[in-house]
Design brief:
Distance between the termini: 39 Å
Radius of gyration: 24 Å
Pfam families: BPD_transp_1
Order of helices and strands: HHHHHHHHHHHHHHH
Keywords: Cell membrane, Membrane, Sugar transport, Transmembrane, Transmembrane helix, Transport
Subcellular location: Cell membrane
Largest sheet: none
CATH architecture of the largest domain: Orthogonal Bundle
Strand content: under 5%
InterPro entries: MetI-like, MetI-like_sf
Oligomer: single chain
Number of strands: 0
Membrane topology: Multi-pass membrane protein
CATH class of the largest domain: Mainly Alpha
Shape: globular
């Protein structure tokens, strides 16, 4: 076995150095946030930001969850919103994607591509009409105002599922129809079980997207009753502008569920990247 040439070794070393630099740039903000969260305001003001906390303290987290701040409530609200939106996205996206993929009806392809074209519309364009609509309906600053715009599927989710459903062999669906299965039975017994990888992908994407959603909750809610994690963290930045250790504690708490999600579903996330990239 011949040893690699110096040019190959140098090229590989350059690739690994580039990857290491990208890793540092990506991970450094999170590490800095966690280190700052365990510092006192005095340590943060007098020491370098890159220096680890010595000694580490949990007073920022105690202050965050105690007293008037009550950071538990935004976490509960966000978890409820994410849970309901995820269920709605999966249910309605599966139904719509199957219709666009397997059911023949007039103008099917035209309607699909017209609906998909809404991906080109920025979110900020629809915020004012949605805000006006919800205000006139009297549901501004309510739980349903946070949920309804995202509950009934999305163009990206329907497109992703449609492409996957089209890859399922037609013979399986035809055989089920010959056995007397209806559309819902085919969906429940054949399409959904065969689509678990892409459904896992969509679940992960939906959870991460709506856990981090900021603009719509900021606009449609006021006060603390229906604050989400992102809005509550932004409120700390304005309310306690000089206390960055408290703000970093809130940021650490906000990203902790996503880190846990990554740790539990690491293999699914890697496979989801491959699936979405391929599709």
């Amino acid at each position: 076995m011949t040893s690699p040439s110096p040019a190959v070794i140098l090229r590989n070393a350059g690739v690994y150095l580039l990857l290491l630099f990208g890793l540092l740039v990506t991970v450094a903000p999170f590490v800095l946030s966690v280190m700052t969260a365990f510092k006192t305001p005095e340590q943060f003001a007098s020491e370098s930001a890159l220096r680890p906390p010595s000694p580490a303290t949990g007073e920022n987290f105690a202050s965050l969850f105690g007293g008037e701040r009550n950071f538990v409530a935004p976490i509960v609200v966000t978890a409820q919103v994410v849970g309901l939106v995820t269920v709605g996205q999966l249910l309605f996206s599966v139904l719509a994607a199957y219709a666009f993929a397997r059911i023949e009806f007039r103008f099917r392809d035209g309607l699909f591509w017209l609906y998909l074209a809404t991906l080109m519309v920025p979110q900020v364009v629809t915020i004012i009409p949605l805000y006006t609509l919800f205000s006139q309906l009297g549901i501004r600053n309510t739980f349903w105002a946070l949920v309804l715009p995202f509950l009934f599927g999305s163009p990206y989710a329907i497109f992703l599922l449609r492409e996957y459903f089209r890859s399922i062999p037609e013979d399986l669906i035809s055989a089920a129809r010959l056995d007397g299965a209806g559309t819902l039975r085919i969906l429940r017994s054949i399409v959904v079980p065969l689509s678990r990888p892409i459904l896992t992908t969509l679940t992960i994407i939906t959870v991460v997207t709506h856990w981090n959603n900021f603009l719509w909750p900021l606009i449609i809610t006021s006060g603390r009753t229906w604050q989400t994690v992102t809005v509550a963290t932004a409120g700390l930045q304005s309310q306690y502008n000089g206390n960055w250790t408290l703000v970093m504690a809130a940021t650490t708490v906000a990203i902790a569920p996503l880190l846990l999600l990554f740790a539990v579903f690491q293999k699914n996330i890697v496979s989801s990247i491959a699936i979405t990239g391929f599709k």
